[in-house]
Automatic annotation (TrEMBL):
This is PCDHB11 isoform 2. Residues 3-86, 87-196, 211-306 form the Cadherin domain. It is a single-pass type I membrane protein. The gene is PCDHB11. Keywords: Calcium, Cell membrane, Glycoprotein, Membrane, Repeat, Signal, Transmembrane, Transmembrane helix.
Length: 432
């Protein structure tokens, strides 16, 4: 600020000395006569001191000295020089599984030391570091107050914990921001019943165990094995004998599921016993399952006993496979025999056809050889095959009779004079 001071006295009585307290970050400077400027001596921080009350004292040099005080207030304006700050660097939230959708599971909070719009904070979910985490379908955040909500029902057995980052940014220019880590732990609920691994409960006949009649009390018959998908005390299992053909003959250990003989066996005890074992967890409310098994009392393990019901389907399946193999083998054998018979018939047909068709050899020389079959083409009473040759330039179309291929030809059929070449005229007018 710039201000002036006047004193109507003269001389030393009119000379003025101006001052301010020394603990302030300001200084007074005299520019011209009776004019002063109030300046900052060091940087100001609005977040430390938002306003200053300054008392300016003007004193003359007269005797006695007279003075005047003037009070002024300096307000420090804000700039966006502070990022939002979370109340915690990390948050841990707990939510029980099977929650209702849109359940409020917790909140995050951040403050900004600035003022006005520079102090208004917006909240947002930052992209998760795990790319396989479907964060957008798990939680949401209110941008104005930082409330977190579960978007769907959570399952402890599928997702026990997950974490993500939350960002807080102000509305200054430029905007400043910060982030915090949020870890969500899903609490287990007793929503799974015990599952019996042994004996297998598959809806068929119960498992059969053999026990010798000479077994002593405490003899281990079998052991019921079960698991629970929950955790903690919800997965603590206890066993007890729920039903038995003869109560008191068998006992079940509560903590490990072992089925043992409780007393000595006698001849009066039935040979076949049916036991139902109850498996119960320690949750609230407790859940349970049952295991059914059969016990056969035998004199020795080599003694035949009733076959298990599961064996019948196995034999039926084996018989079906055997029948299929027999049918396939018969089909292949029949096809092979048919192929052999067809091959023999074809060979015989070809051989008979070759026997009925004449074959002639072509003599070597300049004349082209031809095979001629004269059966049924002339006036001869018998069929003959001849070996002939024909000149390429013959103009009279005459055939020269050389010799018959077939021996024992009767001369009577050829004419009375055997020394002369018989000449025959066939229906085509050729001379032989």
């Amino acid at each position: 600020m710039i201000f002036s001071i006047q004193d109507i006295d003269s001389g030393d009585n009119g000379r003025i000395v101006c001052s301010i307290p020394e603990d302030l970050p300001f200084v007074l400077k005299s520019s011209v006569e009776n004019y002063y400027t109030l300046e900052t001596e060091r940087p100001l921080d609005r977040e430390s001191t938002a306003e200053y009350n300054i008392t300016i004292t003007a004193t003359d040099l007269g005797i006695p000295r007279l003075k005047t005080e003037y009070n002024t207030t300096v307000l420090v304006s804000d700039v966006n020089d502070n990022s939002p700050t979370f109340t915690q660097t990390s948050y841990t939230l707990f939510v029980r599984e099977n929650n209702s959708p849109a359940l409020h599971i917790g909140s995050v909070s951040a403050t900004d030391r600035d003022s006005g719009t520079n102090a208004q904070v917006n909240y947002s979910l930052l992209p998760p570091q795990d790319p396989h985490l479907p964060l957008a379908s798990l939680v949401s955040i209110n941008a104005d107050n930082g409330h977190l909500f579960a978007l769907r029902s959570l399952d402890y057995e599928a997702l026990q914990a997950f974490e993500f980052r939350v960002g807080a940014s102000d509305r200054g220019s430029p905007a400043l921001s910060s982030e915090a880590l949020v870890r969500v732990l899903v609490l287990d609920a007793n929503d799974n019943s015990p599952f019996v691994l042994y004996p297998l409960q598959n809806g068929s006949a119960p498992c059969t165990e053999l026990v010798p009649r000479a077994a002593e009390p405490g003899y281990l018959v079998t052991k019921v094995v079960a698991v629970d998908g929950d955790s903690g005390q919800n997965a603590w299992l206890s066993y007890q004998l729920l039903k038995a053909t003869e109560p008191g003959l068998f006992s079940v250990w509560a903590h490990n599921g072992e089925v043992r003989i409780a007393r000595l066996l006698s001849e009066r005890d039935a040979a076949k016993h049916r036991l139902v074992v109850l498996v119960k967890d320690n949750g609230e409310p407790p859940r349970s399952a049952t295991a059914t098994l059969q016990v056969l009392l035998v004199d020795g393990f080599s003694q035949p006993y009733l076959p298990l019901p599961e064996a019948a389907p196995a034999h039926a399946q084996a018989d079906s496979i055997t029948i299929s193999l027999v049918v396939a083998l018969a089909s292949v054998s029949s096809l092979f025999l048919f192929s052999v018979l067809l091959f023999v018939v074809v060979r015989l047909c070809r051989r008979s056809r070759a026997a009925s068709v004449g074959r002639f050899s072509v003599p070597e020389g300049p004349f082209p050889g031809h095979l001629v079959d004269m059966s049924g083409t002339g006036t001869l009473s018998q069929s003959y095959q001849y070996e002939v040759c024909l000149t390429g330039g013959s103009g009279t179309n005459e055939f020269k009779f050389l010799k018959p291929v077939v021996p024992n030809i009767q001369a009577e059929g050829l004419g009375k004079n055997s020394e002369e070449n018989p000449t025959f005229r066939n229906s085509f007018g050729f001379n032989f």
